[in-house]
Amino acid sequence: MTNGSGSGPVGVALVGAGVISTQYLTALSTFPDVRVLAVADLDVERARAQAAAHGVPHAGDVASALAIPEVEIVVNLTIPAAHAEIASAALEAGKHVYGEKPLALAPSDGAKILAQAQSLGLRVGSAPDTFLGAGLQSAARAVASGLIGEPVSAVAVTQGPGPESWHPSPEFLFQYGAGPLFDIGPYYLTALVALFGPVVRVAASARQARTHRVIGSGPKAGTEFAVEVPTHVHALLDFAAGPSTSATFSFDSSVPRRMIEVTGTEGTLSLPDPNTFEGPLQIRGFGDEDWRDLPVEGTTAGRGIGVLDMARGIRSGAPHRASGELAQHVLELMATVTDSAERHGFVELESRAPEVETLPDDWDPVAATLT
């Protein structure tokens, strides 16, 4: 991963033309250092519609996208159950792969993806890339500068009534590999790991409030479906660097709440929603009567900046930040939380996340740097 390759913009193909693909296509089309060459989907007509809407020259099935020589990165936007299969196929075709979260359904599958990539000299990246946005990058710089002293602890909460009220096909979000922990958890856990480094042990509890839910919008509104995973998870995370975190992931609350607060020896930071790229970022010191805003600086370009960072890394030989190794640690962390909830005790983690450098101050997604 240290040697750069190729020149000029990096060719990209998207596999999966579902809801999230619009956000990726919107952002990637504004980055001159990448060129979206293809959209693929099991539903070829859906792929064609997305390609036409965003000016992408090719649309078809997965095999046709993988056969395009100029495609260097495959962006895997399939459902979680297909992540490992599509990633492996892309690597076998000689493409780097960047996938939606989670990296795979199980750590063993994630490890196979990373091993396959290493053997082929290819890269793996994974969402979320929200930790590269202005809000969380500003938070990382604030923590690194010592603004709140030495970090001691954090509280992370994401809760709400669940996505079945607005998502037209939410069933997969309540199946193995999803639920609030695997679907929303990666945003919070990746942000925390990027701040503090790897987690070494966890203790957790989990429950499922309802065995069935009802789709609330779209053509399937009123359809009942089964819930296969816990819908409320609470975890205690111990980081190798010292801080501990209390984290709650829930689809069972009537009150939406999304927050991360980091407490240090000199004050507390209130971080932005880690499922976004912006602020606000606030601080409250000992003796302060209220929060005050901190400057938020960096990119707000949206989903796909991790793909862009990977593309630039391919050309320069530099490591990319939303890496497969980071995603694998978060995947193992979520699997260990699940294991701990079943065992009713602390469980140790084996993997260690790589250190994540903040983006340079002059990092500009819409500047052409690859010529």
TrEMBL record:
Xref: Pfam families: GFO_IDH_MocA, GFO_IDH_MocA_C3
Record key words, sorted: Oxidoreductase
Domain of life, source organism: Bacteria
Residue ranges constituting the Gfo/Idh/MocA-like oxidoreductase N-terminal domain according to the UniProt record: 11-124
GO molecular function: nucleotide binding; oxidoreductase activity
Domain GFO/IDH/MocA-like oxidoreductase: 137-269
SUPFAM superfamilies: Glyceraldehyde-3-phosphate dehydrogenase-like, C-terminal domain, NAD(P)-binding Rossmann-fold domains
UniProt key word Magnesium: no
Protein name in the entry: Predicted dehydrogenase
Organism name: Actinacidiphila yanglinensis
